Amino acid sequence: MLKGIHQQLDPQESPAFFIQGPKPFSRLMFFCALSLVMMAIDARFEYLGQIRQWFSAALHPLEVVASAPNEWGRNIHTYFTSHNQLIQDNFKLKQQALIDHAALQRLATVDAENAHLRTLLAGDAPIIPQATLGEVLHMGRDPFSNIITLNRGSRHGVTPGQAVVDEQGVVGQITRVYPFTSEVTLITDKKLSIPIQIERNQLRAIAFGEGQRNTLDIPYLPTSVDIKVGDKLVTSGIDGVYPAGLAVAVVTQIRQNQDSPFAKIISRPIAGVNNHKHVLILKVPTSPPSSPVTNNKLMLPRNNAQHLDQSVVDILQQNNAAVDPHPVSELPSLDTTTPESSPENQAAAQPAAAPDNAQRPTAAERP
Amino acid sequence: MKPVKFSTFFFTLLAGLVIQLYPWSNTGLILRPDFLLVIAVYWLLQAPYHCNIGWVWFAGLLVDLATGSLLGQHALSFSITAFLGLIYQRRLVLFNAWQLYLYVIFLFAAQRVLILLLKLFAGSELPDWTYGLPIISDLILWQIMIVWFGALSRPKKL
């Protein structure tokens, strides 16, 4: 049936002599117009997203078939991993676990102390992200974009915008989600930018991917900025996408151009952006942490004081119940913040919170 | 030469799609031929009664969906390549083997240049020289197609 229609419609089959010239051309015009319209729609509107979703779901079985040989190969490799190798790995992992345990013990006390100090300053509780483990299915099939595909999709609760990290640092961000898979745009992609902070002096900036070169560029920093080769860049956490303090990159090159007031700062990503198998997908906090405390800092409305102090006491009580190793001895110092002395408390809290905000002006004034 | 069955055409295209979907990485990704392009263009020239510009366009659309690029980019470049192929389709039987290879290389190169232009318009950056390497693997795949399904032959009714 289908074949019959083709034979009827196909100009190539037609015995007429002059018909074969224009017919493919009109066909070409039609399909060119169609593709141009599709490109315009895809670029400007989101209508085609749904079609993409369906298609991806339809292609999924084929994808499974296509990656089957790879899977078998890996399984065979795993099966023949030698006994010796396993013992070595086990030994290494045990050592690592010991080291990590020691660090973790310190972390627990530091965490408790940090929570306590934060409540003293009436700051927000730090956001501890939840994570899902994802496996890298394949690199991007398109040589023009730095994308990897993970085996977790909307069926597993992945949403666009989530941060993706590996054991060393930030890998990228989820940009497109299909039912069973999702696409991660790497931080080296030209389209992705990431808010960072220099670990050494807390200077904030934004790093942009440089595409093919697998590096990050930090534009708009003046030539006199305090940055050195080897400085570690971490996420600043002010965007609500990446939790603060994740390693991003190491500065590898600083070039100063006579003609430009800005330094050309190149850095190399720390995470194995191109060579990892497993990554963590971090859950974005559902709503940005809005707190009455920040409002208070800005406007200092006195009638909010009662509410603020109540929330502080609540947080403190929760924290004490949960972790704080030395709770009661320090409580009295906070008790002075209850209603009668609240204006002073806020005045005291403000300078204490200020250093975080004060970093930026100093950095900007430096030139 | 016997006309090619529609099923042969369809399943080779399907096989091309599956291989395209294989998780290519690193060197494989750089050298990977455009399976769907080569197969579709082969059938376009070999069996025009099955494969027309529309099919080649559809193959391009599949590549767009598989790569996650802007929908229509590969489809557009594939259909223009198909048209370029069709211009000389009737005269191909007069070409000797080397002329044919040159013609096919021209087609594959044209497709890559078209995609490059479209990507540059969309704001991508210029890739390095390895971008041209798949043309060689395209040619190898073309040779495999010829070995399996026969060299391009005179159309049934001229």
UniProtKB/TrEMBL annotation, chain A:
Ranges of compositional bias, category Polar residues: 334-344
Pfam families: MreC (PF04085)
Keyword Heme: no
Gene Ontology annotations for the cellular component aspect, listed alphabetically: plasma membrane
Keywords: Cell shape
InterPro entries the record matches: Cell/Rod_1, Cell/Rod_MreC_2, MreC, MreC_beta-barrel_core
Domain Rod shape-determining protein MreC beta-barrel core: 137-283
Biological process (GO), any one: regulation of cell shape
Keyword Glycosyltransferase assigned: no
Bias (Low complexity): 345-359
UniProt record similarity statement: Belongs to the MreC family.
Name of the protein: Cell shape-determining protein MreC
Organism for this UniProt entry: Methylophilus rhizosphaerae
Organism lineage string: Bacteria, Pseudomonadati, Pseudomonadota, Betaproteobacteria, Nitrosomonadales
From TrEMBL, chain B:
NCBIfam families cross-referenced by the UniProt entry: shape_MreD
GO-annotated biological processes: regulation of cell shape
Protein's UniProt name: Rod shape-determining protein MreD
Domain of life: Bacteria
Transmembrane segments: 6-23, 100-121, 133-152
Similarity annotation: Belongs to the MreD family.
Keywords: Cell membrane, Cell shape, Membrane, Transmembrane, Transmembrane helix
Main location: membrane
Cellular compartments annotated: Cell membrane
